[in-house]
What does this fold into?
Amino acid sequence: MKDIKSQAKEKMKGYCRVCPICDGRACAGEVPGMGGINTGSSFKNNIKALENVHINMRLVHEVRNPSTQINFLGLKLSMPIVAAPIGGISFNMGGALEEQAYVNAILQGCQQEGTIGCTGDGVPPIIHESGFTGIKNLKGHGIPFLKPWEGAELRDKIAQAAATGCSIMGMDIDAAGLITLRKMGRPVTPFSQHELEEVIKHTHKLHMRFILKGIMTPMDALRAHEAGADAIVVSNHGGRVLDHCPGTAQVLPSIASAVKGRLPIMVDGGIRDGVDVLKMLALGADIVGIGRPCSIAAMGGEAEGVAKLLSNMRSQLEQAMILTGCETIAQISQEVIFKQ
It folds into this structure.
């Protein structure tokens, strides 16, 4: 990973410093780029929220070989870790890799490690086109995420997603505030619960399950459930759309309290290693998304880089499970969390 990060730092010069600790301090306000919007506080809060979670180490038990396998929306995965959807390589990461090469690295690296990658959407069209092509080439093994477009564009892209052969698609409704897209004549928008219901029904008719990304309150989680979403992602878009949001680890427990068991909960934001994965699962998530670390691994080592990162994170998670007495992912509960 040291060599992979070194290569990524060279390729992403001017867009990402590949800091030893990726906490949003050095890149605050660098959007486009890899930073958080304005003061960068939402990005920083993701990191701080996880730092403030401490773990109970428990060793008087019989756990020797923990299993990290899970089932997620009909998929059998080797670990509760997926690559989060990120696109726009030319203006966010410097373009040393072409968009298609980046997408292939994410999807293929995930597949090598027995999990799945998500792809992004945006402007220019190469972003979603590369995602669709990459997923289609892997016979549907990927999860495309679409922006909350107004009008016919969303329906058209849903049809294109279905044509890839994927069984799941998502919408990052947390992109609704991207004014830059509206200025380009490509408006994105929030959705009412009724509008969301119609989109989800249409998606289900095309034999795809639907994930709604950008949930930061229990109320939105309940509305997503009532609208028919098959899963949600607790996310503040990596701190890139609204300044001064809480960290996702802060809001996750209350969201889990509202909808846990009704639909699967994914979370992203600030997750840097397998111990962070354990923390998020203990706070109520069923699965986690990894953003910037996967991007850095893809830029520095392509598919092998992504596979190496995921392999390391899985090993770290296994070790953390042994040290907290959890034999399966289902056994990771709030008992893992230290409370004063």
In short: The chain has one domain: 70-313.
